[in-house]
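Long-time lurker. I teach an intro course on protein structure, and each term I like to show students one example going from raw sequence to a predicted 3D structure in token notation. This year I'd like something fresh instead of my usual example. Would anyone be willing to generate the tokens for the chain below so I can use it in lecture? Attribution to the forum is fine with me.
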Amino acid sequence: MGGAIARLVDPTERTSGSSKQNLATSRSRPSRAAMAPHLARAPRPTPASSSSAAAAAELLASASRLPARRFLQLHAHLLRTGLLALSPGTAGSAFLSLAAASLPSPRALAVLHHHLTPASLPDTFRCNAILGALSDPHDALRFLRRMRALGRRGNAFSLAILLKPCRTLAHARQLHANVVAEGHLRDALLATSLMRCYAACGEGEAARNLFYEMPVRDTVAWNVLISCYMRNRRTKDALKLFQEMRGGENEVEPDDVTCILLLQACTSLGALDFGEQVWEYAKEHGYAGELKVRNSLIAMYSRCGCVEKAYQVFCDTPRKSVVTWSAMISGLAANGFGKDAISAFEEMIRSDVAPDAQTFTGVLSACSHSGLVDEGFRFLDMMRYGYRLMPNVCHYGCIVDLMGRAGLLEEAYELVTKEMKVPPDATIWRTLLGACRVHGKVDLGERVISHLIELKAQQAGDYVLLLNTYAAVGDWTKVAEVRKLMKEKGIQTTPGCTTVELNGEVHEFIADDDAHPRKVEIYEKLNEINMHLRIAGYVPNVSSELHDLDSEGKGSALAYHSEKLAIAFALLVTPQHRPIRLAKNLRVCVDCHNFTKVFSGIYNRLVIVRDRTRFHHFQGGQCSCNDYW
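-- Reply from a regular --
Happy to contribute to a lecture. Here you go:
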């Protein structure tokens, strides 16, 4: 293209001083503000033949994109020779397309506005290409208004292009109004693009309303709604859509993307039974061989505590990608099988699959959860020097957690403040704060809180960790001071919530819950469990109750935490041979952890609890976390 452009220029013009001066002037046009007046003062065109105009039109039509400086050279030549004026239709529309593809969005818009006339107005196809080339959605919207003012209305695809980079709710609503006014709501592509736009802006309800207004809802639209629900933390509603898709008058078949999204939703909720229903559907409809479906299934089984099933799917997957290996390694790590995760990592290396950043997060997490300090630092060095990967905050967070587990809290603090190559985020400080709670390091915990305050990232859970740290050393005066501070700042703690799945339905419990339809049976069963556990030696850990109560009051308050209610319900509804699976939105408190350990031994049940940070496998009076979490 560069040589062709050079041949367009007459040899005498290329050597003339005035041409060089004009060319230099065109190169130095830096700002959008200066562009319009410069174009208005363009030099008077020199005569050009019709054959030159035809050649220019042909070359412009064949070009896709030029470097910005090269385009400006071409622009100056076309202005001097008047080639655009000779062929405003073909050459003009091709030139406008090339401008949009070659220049930054604001500068391209200035050129478009200057040259856009009824004669040079491109057809709808080229106008859509220009809309897609303009990177700034506001500039694209301005061009749409301009082309419509000149008589080119565009089509549904024109609006769909504008929705792709949509970043603001006002932009989405404006385009929604255009869609309705122009009767494009029946266009499934356009409607689903608008749904995605609403979802990206956090307007899940608007996306849902639009979905049910659509006269025709295809599988893609259902998938977008499922994704929207998950983005807005309405995971249970996302699962309900699976049944709604397949039943009634909808007659829409879920596809492989639907299966992936639903498996991710089951991963989030710990909904094992529902996840297995989705897997059965995938097998029946020919999606079982899709690698992404299998990767999602491995992650789902791992996050539901079914490591054996996850490993079976992993072994049966013929062509394993780095994502497959990473999902298995992370699953083993999260469930406390640190040495197995390291073995899997080493097998991956032997299989000539290069690990990525996510793989190293998994193997470092395995070292952290298993207390393998030396191995953790070995893998960190391997990452940096063997694979030339720069550790991020997630990798350093695993190392901080590993050092905290080993009691190296001051060394971990030094690592964060002096040695890390990336700025620490709130998660790293919370990891260190959790270690302070376990080891009773009050002074360091106070320093960590000060860093969270500096980041303006402190949350209610951070203050609860600090409260637990003070309570662990019996400093109730400090507990009262922190509680007063939280009250003054209006900091509200997140209510603990524990879920249990039964036959594909998720049951939720909060502390002192009285909303469940079987509440009478649940409380009777929990009182029975408490009686048996106390006989076996269980004593409530009153340091887990941070309210200003006497010992008896603290014990009563602890008796009906959400985990205990969930365990009582699970004991009522699950057969003896099945594990009890719970998922909690917060870190398990010390008392509930002790309660579950004793329960697993007395009742001879495997209890698998997924809290905010890791898995706990309780069996025979022991926990896989070795009392560090």
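Some talking points for your students: The chain has 35 helices and six strands. The radius of gyration is 32 Å.
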